[in-house]
Design brief:
Blueprint: H1 8-18, H2 24-35, H3 42-45, H4 50-72, E1 80-86, E2 93-100, E3 108-115, H5 125-148, H6 159-164
Antiparallel strand pairs: 1-2, 2-3
Length: about 160
């Protein structure tokens, strides 16, 4: 039995539009151009500012996944989640999703993902939806585990293994 995932392309498009980053038609074009087509992504390799464009792409992919997880599991007052990116133009970039429960409290790493941004190109929307759903579920499970105190069992590669490859 396979789980149905949401249409993450539409979700990301709506998120980009509702956050005011770009109009809906531009968001649809941006996502289509950057997520589907030739591998490696020529838009990231041939840009005049590759670091900034890669940072924007990673933030625009991961931030909506965090937003979806926090809609399902609301954060306590004063808590926040931040998506950090450490962009590499020659290797894998790191994306860290970190939970900050409040002032003077220890933070919690919810997700550590490593990817060559220019290779984040998918054959079709189902492949992308699977990729996005895995990360969404991992973030959501880590958030749920914070409230229960049960250690997370990540569905993604272990953090050190993900960065090493």
């Amino acid at each position: 039995m396979t789980r149905r995932s949401r249409n993450w392309i539409a979700y990301l498009c709506e998120n980009l539009a509702s956050s005011g980053l770009m109009p809906t038609w531009e968001a649809a074009t941006y996502l289509t151009d950057n997520l589907f087509g030739d591998k490696p992504n020529p838009r990231l390799l041939r840009t005049s500012c590759p670091y900034e464009d890669t940072t924007h792409l990673l933030q625009r992919l991961y931030q909506p996944l965090v937003a979806a997880a926090t809609r399902d599991l609301p954060l306590p007052a004063g808590a926040m989640i931040h998506v950090f990116t450490d962009v590499s133009l020659t290797g894998k970039s790191a994306v860290l999703v970190v939970y900050f429960p409040g002032p003077n409290q220890p933070y919690h790493l919810l997700l550590l993902d490593a990817a060559k941004a220019w290779e984040l190109v998918f054959e079709n929307s189902d492949e992308f939806n699977t990729w996005a759903e895995e990360r969404y579920r991992s973030i959501k499970a880590a958030l749920a585990n914070l409230s229960t105190g049960v250690p997370a069992s990540p569905a993604l590669p272990a953090p050190l293994e993900a960065v090493k490859n």
